[in-house]
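Reviewers of the previous submission asked for a worked example of the structure-prediction workflow described in the proposal, so we include one complete record here. The input consisted solely of the amino acid sequence. No template or homolog information was supplied to the procedure at any stage.
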Amino acid sequence: MEITAQVATWVFSVFGIFGLGALAAYAAFRYLGTKWLDTKFQERLEAYKHEQQKELEELRFKINALMDRSVKLHQREFDVLPETWGRLIDAFGQAQSVTSAFQQYPDVSRMDTPLLEEFLAKSPLRESEKDELRRAKDRTKYYIKVITWHRIVDARVKLNEYRVYLLKNGIFMPAELKGKFDALDSLIFDALIEDEMNERDEIFPKPRKAADDLAKTGGQLIKSLEQAVHARFWSADATTI
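From that input alone, the workflow returned the following structure tokens.
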């Protein structure tokens, strides 16, 4: 009877010991498992935060780059437009003056020698042309012929200066706006070529289709272009980045 009691006590003790060990192992596992999960979660969270921060930095860089480019492009456009407009007006005005049907010239033939010399001193004629004019039988006719070519050349120079500037800087303009500049360019060029051919071939009466187009259509295009340029400077859309 005592042996049985001892065995029972021993079995109970053994199971008791193992039961406590299992309980301790479970507690340890639960603690360590929770700790491991917390650690992994923190690692994943930090990795996610890092990736998000990296994406935000990349997005911020792209936005800043786009804004910087937009600001520079707008600034370049606002520098180019007034200069292009000014050169166009110079070329347009010079061409209209040269190709106009109404022309006035001084009556050089009626000038006495002192007045003629004073006039020639201020004129754009070359010295050889001045000598030719002094010897000409019809001084007024000679002067008209020579000064007309000077004016044609001056008008072509103005047009070329405008065209070169537009060619270099037209990329900074909206396509529709540049198209208006190009249209006026063509009208001016055609009118000057027409006038040059009339003078060279001494055609009379002079064909005036291109000159009339410049006076009529050119004037309308100038007004339309002026409104478009004004809108680029003062409209809210033009300043939106």
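Residues 125 and 131 are 10 Å apart (CA to CA). We consider this example representative of the routine output the project will generate in years two and three.
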